[in-house]
Structures are given as structure tokens and as C-alpha cells.
Amino acid sequence: MNVIITGGSRGIGAAAVRAFSARGDRVAFLYEKEDEKAAAVAAETGAIAIRCDVSDEAAVNAAFARLPGADVLINNAGIADYDLINVITPARWRRLFAVNVDGAFYCIRAALPHMLRRQSGCILNVSSMWGQVGASCEAAYSATKGALLALTKALAQELGPSGIRVNAVAPGVIQTDMCAHVAPAVMEGLRQQTPIERLGTPEDIARAMVYLADAEFITGQVLPVNGGFVIT
Asked: Model-level pTM?
């Protein structure tokens, strides 16, 4: 399969690149700015790396034009912003939506012509448990991840008759760079709140992605990968 992954230079995205490459898929990934990390992941896995800001529609279209059509598209690229809602500025709000939501929209539109021609395909959106239940001081981030869940469910219905499945993963607290600003004591508290008493790893999420990519009778679903932190 041809697999295209956004945000593939580090964290969950890099783990997904490794997981799909290891099983023999042809993998390409987009990344925004970390050239050295992207080059290292590409060298390790044999995947194609393309620098691209997914919030730029023209850049997305140009990147996809360089790649074979996607059989699996994983919309993983995302950013976080933590603050009170009355402190988050309109510019910060718009940037979150530009990357987390608009980026997925642009990539889906770029991937769809190939999938529609083949009448098959798989789209995986990376949301968050906060998109399911919300989080204090993360209202803007939660809103973007909730939007991805609504998009997933709507597109599963719209694209199902064309043989295209659309699902989402909703990670819990995952040990990535996105958590680097969080104090160790806070991370320990989150670990203790998790019923299986450990934090997640990028590999945990990558394994869930591989499962959904192969699960031919699953669409429109949200797979929580959070160790039981949120049970809905």
C-alpha cells in the first residue's frame, strides 16, 4: 500500500512511519521544519520525506503531486496551545485550526481523487481524548480535535459508498515532545490517574493506526488509545 503520513518527523508520526515501513508499505511523510529529524527517519525507514506546512493548501497540493496516490492517508500533523480561553488570542486560535483542522481538510482533498478512482482507501485522523471530553485550559485545542471527530463521522457516511473508510484515533497522554513543557510531577499525576498505570508511547498509537488501516469493516469510529484515562 501507499501510505502518506503528515507530521512524520517525530513523535507519533515518526512511529507510524516506522510501523508501516516495517511491514513493507511504501511510505511518504510530510513535515514542517525539522529537516535533520526528517532525514534521520527517512534514512532509517526508506520513506520519502517532503517538507510541507499542511496549513498551506498550495503546498499540500504540490507535495501530493510529487507522490503516488495514497491508499492510506494519516492526518497526524498537529500543534497544541495551552491557556485560558480569555488569554488565547484570535491569532493563536486561528493557527490551531489552520494546522489541526484545515491541514486535514487540505490533505483529504488532495488524496481523494486517487481513492475515488480506485473506489477504495483509508483515511485516519489523529484526534485526542480532549476532543472527546474537553480539557480545562485547552479549550482551543479541544475544539480542533473535536472538529476532527465530527469530520471523521461525517466523511465516513459520505465516502463509504465509494469504498473509502474514515476513522480516528484519540490518544491519551502520550510521551512526546508535545508534553515536554509539562512538569514531571504533573506527568506522574497523569500516570497515576491512568488505570493501567503508565503513560502512552508513540508506538501505542502507531499500532492502533496499523489495526485501523487493515480493519476493512470498520468506519466512522473513534478508537480511544488512552490506557483507560477517559472511558466514554
From this structure: 0.95
Selected catalytic residue, list 31, 82, 106, 141: 141
Q: What angle do CA 78, 80, 13 make, to 5 degrees?
A: 35
| Domain range 2-225, CATH architecture | 3-Layer(aba) Sandwich (3.40)
Confidence class of residue 191 from pLDDT cuts 50, 70 and 90? confident
**Residue for cell digits 499540500?**
60
pLDDT-wise least confident of 4-18, 107-121, 139-153, 171-185: 171-185
Q: What is the arithmetic mean of pLDDT over 45-52?
A: 98
Place of cell 478508537: 223
Helix axis angle, 103-118 relative to 139-159, nearest 10°? 10
141 catalytic residue (yes or no): yes
> In the chain, which ranges are continuous DSSP H helix?
11-22, 35-45, 57-65, 90-97, 103-118, 129-133, 139-159, 184-193, 202-214
